[in-house]
Design goal:
heterotrimer, A alpha/beta, B alpha/beta, C alpha/beta, B: alpha/beta, six-stranded mixed sheet, four-stranded mixed sheet, C: six-stranded mixed sheet, 30% strand
């Protein structure tokens, strides 16, 4: 699975499991948060990445960090 | 009919992996599989696969100089079967020969990164993934070569992968006028495009069945390396990837890791390289048994100005290693 | 209702130097020393060379920065290039005199300025006035006033780039002043779509993506930097009348020189069709080449909302440069389609094809492959700024990417790709 701030590019390259990252310069971090908040954010992103790895997909898909915001691209 | 043939060090009879760093050589006549083509080969170009991958500009410079001097009717490359490095060299050389006005016939597995490298500029005969398909591939490549040299319709000479050969030309109307025309047509229900829609067309890989027992590897194109960049990974146009041991490493601290990527502002990464590769978080999830094991190596390269085909070659090589080492899944971070 | 924009065109048959600026029978005379003085007034510019070149001259221009059409707000000169030169007043109102068939081409080698490390990579930018590659640049067909700047040693890159932009505008205005009192060859009135247009006609807007990435990759709106700009609506006449000025000096083929805003074929064509085959709903401008995923999504969404608020049935997304800006064009297309606005995109290609693609982008205009080699040509002379490093080490083979305006993604050129 791929974590990137540019999910459409990863999808175009053929990646099936794509999770939207925070920014190009920091896909799994956020400077504007406190240290604790940022570590918690990174843990949540990584947990979501593992969930994508466990999930069966029949087509290229892009997930958002929050489960409710999951979107799928054919 | 004048035909030149390109092969790697192995098929040129120079040796296997031990000879993979051999720079380009020009050999008169046919060598190895060239003899099986049943064509008169005026010369064979050969190059070590590693040399080509690591010194692409030098290798191409020499090979293209020879091609430009010989001006063959057709350049035959391979067959490379499933070999990524060999196929990449074949596809890249065929693409660049096309720019010189020389047509090429390649043979390789349709999944070979060389297909991407050729960018639709070569006639690629689909082959098996392994060398057992040699006997089947050679006559097909030869028939296509004869047809092209004779100026005959190549599609009558057997199957080849789709080509995407387009060139610049001046249209009668400006891009603006064409855009207005196409948009009005689309609104009226007639959707057209001047660019064929890309389709990577791959089969989705299956899920990791038991992630609590799985080994997960971290791979990145963010240029994340041990501080000091021990292998001199370049900030752009990387020609290689590297792996670094992370056994027992709890977190990518800024004292010991950095990014050398030249494609984005490195402030956030230099404060905390975990923002590029979430090792600290994955270690937490390993400790809480959410995931089995974090693989002992971090795989890294710089994805900046890297051609898609070269990147595909890195990916194929990294995937082969991970497969061999029993890795079940990968988290790849992209910048 | 605001006064419409009237564009009075004065066709330039030839240009030469003379004792005073004048325009008679299509012959434009320029007072070279006066123009040089105008530019030298602005530090850190220390010297200016002015050269005239014509279509068919056996010369290659190198280190090209920008291309500007000479224009002046003839009844209110202080409103010319508003915000950039004089008052910050609304552009696109009242009469503008333009010299048709003439362009001001600015050039400089920023090498000697500080911060030069940033510029190691500033790529080659050329225009051939004749030879096999001349057709790639639209300004091989215009008569050109070439203005080459030299800067004080130690000047900052920011100051050098900014003053080169302003000095070029000032020269463009001064040259157009020569048309005062003359009879125009042609006059066009633009009323920004306020004329009656049937609701049955499809409403079309333009989404114009702009670059704002630092000193030599910048665009100015009414003289202001746009790095904080959220997508907003402009009247077509504002764009056509000097509200937007270029300060992007990177990839020659895919940057947007000021000239393509002033003479935007897209905006002029849509204006001409208004009330006949379509309703021209307006222009949405927004920055592109955004870094964070959130910014990219937000700007795409806001651009789509602006397009929808104009009542647009369709949008044409015009972009610039390559890479992340193309990703933004694709996201904007997706957001527009989601908002019910059918979308076409204008993009340049490379040897690697498209940088990005979304499923909704099913209507794309290709303005050519910038990686394709251009035909070789040996010019008899090079026109370059003093001390130009690029002029002394010109490669024997250039690609389309080096030709100014060759694949401009506002759609002003005619290059495309066809099956071979």
């Amino acid at each position: 699975m791929v974590i990137t701030a540019l999910p459409s590019i990863a999808s175009m390259a053929g990646a099936t499991r794509v999770l939207r990252g925070i920014a190009i310069t920091n896909p799994v971090g956020d400077r504007s948060l406190t240290r604790e908040q940022e570590v918690e954010l990174r843990r949540a992103i990584t947990e979501r990445a593992l969930t994508m790895l466990e999930t069966e997909f029949s087509r290229r898909s892009v997930w958002e960090l929050k489960p409710g915001e999951a979107t799928t691209t054919p | 009919m004048k035909v030149l043939h390109y092969v790697n060090q192995f098929f040129a009879g120079m040796g296997g992996e031990d000879a993979a760093s051999t720079p380009p050589v020009l050999i008169p006549g046919a060598v190895g599989p060239g003899r099986g083509l049943g064509l008169e080969i005026s010369a064979t170009l050969a190059c070590g696969d590693d040399y080509f991958a690591e010194h692409e500009d030098d290798a191409l410079g020499q090979l293209l100089a020879w091609l430009d001097e010989a001006r063959p009717d057709v350049l035959v490359c391979g067959p490379a079967f499933g070999s990524g490095r060999y196929g990449y060299a074949c596809g890249t050389l065929a693409r660049e020969a096309f720019r010189l006005g020389i047509v090429s016939v390649c043979g390789m597995d349709p999944q070979n990164p060389g297909v991407l490298a050729a960018q639709g500029k070569a006639y690629i005969v689909p082959t098996s993934a392994n060398v057992a398909g040699m006997r089947d591939a050679l006559p097909k490549m030869a028939a296509l070569t004869v047809a092209l040299a004779a100026g005959e319709d190549p599609s009558a000479a057997g199957p080849f992968l789709p080509r995407h050969v387009r060139r610049n030309a001046f249209a009668a109307e400006t891009g603006a006028d064409r855009a207005v025309e196409l948009l009005l047509a689309k609104i009226a229900g007639d959707t057209r495009s001047e660019i064929p829609i890309p389709d990577p067309g791959r089969i989705p890989p299956g899920p990791v069945l038991d992630i609590a027992a799985a080994t997960i590897a971290l791979v990145t194109e963010s240029g994340c390396v041990p501080r000091g960049n021990p292998d001199q990974l370049p900030s752009r146009h990387a020609r290689s990837w590297h792996r670094y041991a992370i056994d027992g490493v709890a977190s990518l601290s800024p004292e010991h890791y950095e990014s050398v990527h030249g494609g984005f502002e490195l402030g956030a990464a230099s404060e905390d390289p975990n923002r590029l590769v979430p090792l600290d978080a994955l270690r937490q999830l390993e400790a809480s048994r959410r995931v089995g094991t974090v693989h002992g190596w971090l795989y890294t390269t710089t994805g900046n100005g890297t051609p898609v085909a070269a990147a595909a070659l890195f990916g194929q090589a990294i995937a082969a290693e991970l497969n061999e080492e029993g890795v079940d899944g990968v988290i790849l971070t992209g910048t | 209702m605001p006064a419409p924009l009237e564009i009075a065109s004065y066709h330039c048959v030839d240009v030469r130097f003379g004792p005073a600026g004048s325009f008679r029978n299509g012959i434009l005379e320029l007072e070279r020393e006066r123009l040089r003085e105008l530019a030298r007034d602005e530090p850190p510019i220390v010297d200016v060379e002015i050269t005239l070149v014509r279509p068919g001259d056996p010369v290659r221009l190198v280190n090209v920065l920008d291309v500007v059409e000479p224009t002046v707000k003839i009844d209110r000169p202080e409103a010319t290039f508003p915000g950039s030169l004089g008052f910050d007043t609304k552009a696109g109102v009242g009469r503008t005199n333009r010299v048709d068939g003439l362009a001001i081409i600015s050039m400089a080698d920023f090498g000697p300025t500080r911060n030069a490390t940033l510029l190691k990579d500033l790529p080659l930018a050329v225009i051939d006035m004749s030879g096999p590659a001349a057709p790639y640049s639209p300004w091989s067909k215009t008569r050109n006033v070439v203005v080459a700047y030299s800067f004080a040693a130690g000047a900052s890159l920011e100051a050098a780039a900014r003053t080169a932009r302003r000095a070029t505008l000032r020269i463009a205005q001064e040259i157009a002043e020569a048309t005062r009192g003359a009879m125009p060859d042609d006059s066009l009135v633009l009323d920004d779509g306020t004329a009656e247009a049937s609701d049955d006609l499809p409403a079309i807007c333009v989404v114009l993506q702009l670059g704002a990435e630092g000193a030599v990759y910048d665009t100015f709106l009414y003289g202001q930097p746009i790095n904080e700009l959220e997508p907003r609506v402009l009247a077509p006449s504002e764009v056509l009348d000097g509200a937007l000025v270029n300060q992007a000096f990177n990839w020659a083929a895919v940057r947007n020189p000021t000239y393509v805003y002033q003479r935007s074929r897209l905006l002029l064509a849509l204006s001409g069709m208004h009330g006949k085959t379509l309703r021209f709903a307006g222009v949405v401008v927004g920055i592109s080449y955004l870094e964070s995923a959130l910014d990219k999504e937000r700007v795409a969404r806001l651009a789509a909302e602006a397009a929808a608020s104009l009542g647009a049935d369709g949008a044409i997304v015009a972009t610039f440069s390559s890479g992340y800006s193309h990703a933004d064009a694709m996201l904007t297309c997706r957001a527009c389609e989601a908002a019910g606005v059918r979308t076409a995109i204008i993009v340049a290609e490379t040897d690697s094809g498209l940088f990005d693609h979304v499923e909704e982008a099913d209507c794309i205009v290709s303005v050519g492959n910038i990686d394709e080699p251009a035909p070789q040509w040996q010019p008899e002379a090079i026109v370059a700024p003093p001390g130009s490093a690029a002029a002394s080490e010109l490669p024997s083979r250039l690609s389309i990417a080096s030709y100014v305006g060759a694949a401009v993604q506002t759609g002003d050129a005619q290059l495309t790709m066809v099956p071979a």
